[in-house]
């Protein structure tokens, strides 16, 4: 019943149900494994229904699921369900978009859980993470070496932090 509410038409119900499900995931852990197919179908369908705010909660629910069930997620049928919408969002978001943070955090958990199942996605994810880190460092150098640093916007170091976390997830997986 809770998963049905995740797909409710009311945004507030979606938000409450998705948050509640993330809490359930933390408690249930591997007890969710027999239901992974249905859970993933529901969460993936939510990508087509959710708007901005609830998408962030959905990323959290997916990341928490990956943390909770771990390597049990590393099955081709689960990977083929889960990865296309995540990679689609990854491709749509620009490097400077703050919505990239929760997606990177989610992907970090997913990469760790999928282990070798994440290999097909490693190269583009690795490249973009390195690029995000380089951009942050270059902005920092520009600002530090400038005669008038106030004319440059301070780099958002969170981009570098979440990119490093995701690289760590790739290394763990």
Task: Pick out its properties.
single chain, 173 residues, mainly alpha, Leucine-rich Repeat Variant, protein transport, transport, cytoplasm, repeat
The CATH class turns out to be Mainly Alpha
How many DSSP H or I helices?
A: 8
**Secondary-structure element order, as H and E?**
HHHHHHHH
Number of strands: 0
Tell me the number of structural domains: 1
The N- and C-terminal alpha carbons lie at a distance of 33 Å
CATH topology heading: Leucine-rich Repeat Variant
- How would a textbook summarize the main sheet? none
Strand content: under 5%
What would you call the structural class?
Answer: mainly alpha
Unreliable residue runs: none
Assign the CATH superfamily. Answer: Leucine-rich Repeat Variant
**Chain-averaged pLDDT:** 93
The level of helicity is: over 70%
**Gyration radius, in Å:** 17 Å
Identify the CATH architecture: Alpha Horseshoe
Which of globular, elongated, flat, extended, rod-shaped describes the shape? Answer: globular
